[in-house]
Amino acid sequence: MCARCAYRALLGGRSTSPLGIVNAINVIAPYRYLGMWVFDDARVGLVQEPFVSGADAIIDRAVADIPDAQSGFLMLFSSSPFPGHQFRLEWRRVEMDGNWYYSPDLDMEGWLCPALLKYFDQAPRELFVQVKPRPHDA
Length: 138
Hints:
six-stranded antiparallel β-sheet, globular, 2 helices, three-stranded antiparallel β-sheet, mainly beta, 12% helix, CATH 2.40.50
């Protein structure tokens, strides 16, 4: 086994960033901009990265009960189940350098762009997601 493969095996599916930072659970704070769900993550070099092609509709459903979600909410995600996750997304297929995922909880499908690979070495077979209000002090 090569050193890189051994490192990946050691991580056990946890995500890595280009900075070498390892997180088991990632957090972003999507918000509405020009009518689209977008997010910023300076840690991985993303600014106003949009959710498109069904991923936006999944977010609409997932945050329906979060007051003022359009101003920002927290989204935690991981390739492993964690306490409090609300949704499981199943990998379906690759298309145009992105990946389609299906939510059995919402019976919806959405495409995640190649920015997903800023958080994972490869597209996970499953993603576990929690959405919640953004703290007032954030």
